[in-house]
Amino acid sequence: MSVMPACPECASTYTYDDGLQFVCPECGHEWSQQASDTAEDESVIRDAHGTPLADGDSVTVIKDLKVKGASSVVKVGTKVKNIRLVEGDHDIDCKIDGIGAMKLKSQFVKKA
């Protein structure tokens, strides 16, 4: 017997299976079983090639990136050590030698 997931809207544990979707009897929310399976994968931050990233990893920049508010550029091939993953649009927090603290998007790096 499989365990039914909690409702993503109201967190109710009384959900039930209705064919290809789950239904919450408390709030009436319906969602597909496939969406429930892929929700776990969305929380993982991946690099440009799909490799999962973790805190403390080293990454390499794959595209020249302009630094907003400065005249400097982060060049292709720049290696960034000891990254920290954060929530938001720019999901990597790091320090780059010669530039300082920055936030990067994971789509512009690959795991080193």
UniProtKB/TrEMBL annotation:
Protein YjdM C-terminal domain location: 45-112
Domain Protein YjdM N-terminal, residue spans: 4-32
Signal sequence region: none
InterPro entries reported for this sequence: YjdM, YjdM_C, YjdM_N
Superkingdom of source: Bacteria
Family: Belongs to the YjdM family.
Protein name: Alkylphosphonate utilization protein
Organism: Halomonas eurihalina
